[in-house]
Design brief:
- The strands form two sheets. This protein has an eight-stranded parallel barrel, surrounded by eight helices. Strands 6-7 form a two-stranded antiparallel sheet.
- It has a single domain, classed as Aldolase class I (TIM Barrel, Alpha-Beta Barrel), CATH 3.20.20.70.
- By secondary structure, it is an alpha/beta fold.
- It starts with 13 loop residues before the first helix and ends with a helix.
- The structure holds ligand PBG.
- Ligand PBG binds next to helix 6.
- Keywords: Heme biosynthesis, Lyase, Porphyrin biosynthesis.
- Homooctamer.
- Its EC number is 4.2.1.24.
- It holds the Pfam family ALAD.
């Protein structure tokens, strides 16, 4: 009891604060999302994501070497697909000679030890901007699963270490795991976006990849029939436990900051590592506020990342990864 116990004693200096600190951020915490485009020598800033770029394969090679030298050892690849290669079935997604397949090889060639994760969903390849195949005004679950399994296999064949399905179809983890096992890819892992919400924070990402749902008749205008309702909490645990049963090695909550209650629920409920995706809109919000001088960029960034880890994340996919590691020194 006071005055014998005074909590402020443990806050009197940076030395004691660092001694009793419960959550510490290191480069090992991060997965770095990377956007890849066709072409040569291309490094385009994404307008709604200041200081974040789409890069062509030649520059991707240099980028991953830089990341590795900073202690950043995992990347998550996304590709921007030209309109003429998009169709409803996402056919280009399993082209062995496609941009993603080349990107995987480029990273592995440049930096063999880099852990390569790949986004598995049809939206960048879909003429309708949906994560699955559209038919009769809906997203066809089982047909999409077959396509995702094929897409995942093609990434594994190109050398991906971990597949990251971000589509939220039912049963897609089982379908993908089954195909990987049949084809001998026992060591290719699956990081499932298990609790992925229908969030408006994905806007800048969809700008980056030109992958927003199209405004076409008889095509759903949003992703609410597959991504989760942001009002739901218990459902996230249900989704996640099912993905683990189906063979997910790592589970993910997405977005990050507005969903830290979900992160803690899942961390307490599962026995596999938990990832959190701090998404594009979260990045854009801080960049915009900082550009206006309204928030201290670095201080808020560190507070946010620390909060995500404190909530229970074992790893964080974040566009701030390089900024944080530079700040840590
Ligand atoms: C693709 C995918 C999305 C994101 C990651 N994978 C967009 C979406 O589901 O619409 C969002 C990432 C971000 O906003 O940073 N399915």
């Amino acid at each position: 009891m006071y005055p014998l116990r005074r909590n402020r004693r443990l806050r009197t200096s940076e030395a004691i604060r660092s001694l009793v600190r419960e959550t510490v951020i290191t480069p090992n915490d991060f997965i770095v999302p990377l956007f890849v485009v066709e072409g040569k020598g291309i490094r385009e800033e994404i307008p709604s994501m200041p200081n974040y770029y789409r890069q062509s394969l030649d520059l991707l090679a240099a980028e991953v070497k830089t990341l590795w030298s900073m202690g950043l050892k995992s990347v998550l690849l996304f590709v921007k697909v030209p309109d003429n290669l998009k169709d409803n079935a996402g056919t280009e997604a399993f082209n062995a000679d496609g941009l993603m397949q080349h990107a995987i090889k480029t990273v592995k060639n440049a930096c063999p030890e880099m852990l390569v994760m790949t986004d598995v969903a049809l939206d960048p390849y879909s003429s309708y901007g949906h994560d699955g195949i559209v038919g009769n005004g809906e997203i066809l679950n089982d047909a999409t699963n077959k396509a995702l399994a094929k897409m995942g296999l093609s990434h594994a064949q190109a050398g991906a270490d971990i597949l990251a399905p971000s589509d939220m179809m039912d049963g897609r983890i089982y379908e993908m795991r089954t195909v990987l096992e049949e084809e001998g890819f026992h060591n290719t892992g699956i990081m499932s976006y298990s609790a992925k919400y229908a969030s408006s924070f994905y806007g800048p990402f969809r700008d980056a990849l030109d992958s927003a749902p199209a405004d076409i008749q008889n095509v759903p205008k949003d992703k609410k029939t597959y991504q989760m309702d942001f009002a739901n909490r218990d459902e996230a645990v249900k989704e996640t436990l099912m993905d683990i049963e189906e063979g997910a090695d790592i589970v993910m909550v997405k977005p990050g900051l507005c969903y830290l209650d979900i992160v803690r629920d899942i961390r307490d409920a599962v026995d596999v590592p938990v990832a959190v995706y701090q998404v594009s809109g979260e990045y854009a919000m801080l960049k915009a506020a900082a550009a206006n001088g309204w928030l201290d960029h670095d201080a808020v960034m560190l507070e946010q990342i620390t909060a995500i880890k404190r909530a229970g994340a074992h790893m964080i996919a974040s566009y701030f990864a390089k900024d944080v590691v530079r700040l840590l020194g």
